[in-house]
User: Fold Ribosomal RNA small subunit methyltransferase E from Barrientosiimonas endolithica.
Amino acid sequence: MTAPLFHLPYARLADAQPGTRVVLDGAEGRHAATVRRIGVGEQVLLADGTGAVATTTVAETGRDELVLLVESVDRSPSPATTFVLVQALAKDGRDLQAVEAATELGVDRVLPWQAERSIVRWRGDRAAKAHAKWVSATVAAAKQSRRATVPEVGDVVGLDGLVAVAGDAAATLVLHEEAEQPIGAVELPAAGEVLVVVGPEGGISPAELAALRAAGATDVRLGSTVLRSSTAGPAALAVLLARSRWSGTKDEAAVGGAP
Assistant:
């Protein structure tokens, strides 16, 4: 079985080398020592969320911490082409489900979108709490899937903000049930950001679709069925990643094996 993976603050693995002793403390250390009861001699993976993963062995245990001896450090290069899930806010937690699944699959960034037909609204304190929940979900999903990187969760954007991001992207793919072009036929750029835009329960409005097309977006379909907001984004990412990162060597984001 693959060793369990825990996250450290970004700076604490920056200078780690074989033989370095690292203390896993805080919430992660408490979970490892008290809940998982990881003991001396067991192997543990440490990730800093930016691509560095250390393989370590437990040298000492404490009530709320582990003292780890670094055996090796693997630093994954950043991919030339990155994938961004633009997820419209959706009810019943379907947007959060999409974020979790997309993280496991290997998405590089997540952008919350306050779409015209989104029933859920992020305002004031609710926006901050909801954003923090999405960040926590990406960290948990990255740990579960043994990812070396944790995708960034951007600030929520409206249509104007999304159009600006789409204008700077290498490609923007808008999932739409009436699109003629299948997503599998889209030519992917060799470098840059690829946006995958998913609408809310009520779908993307004609005005939104027109604005995104004007910014250079291409509307694509996944198949003959209409998928829920929680499913569409991860399904699209699976198709795109299968054509790019999964088609050769092991995905740079996966530590414990190819998905």
The first helix runs from residue 26 to 35. The chain has a mean pLDDT of 89. The first strand starts at residue 5 and ends at 7.
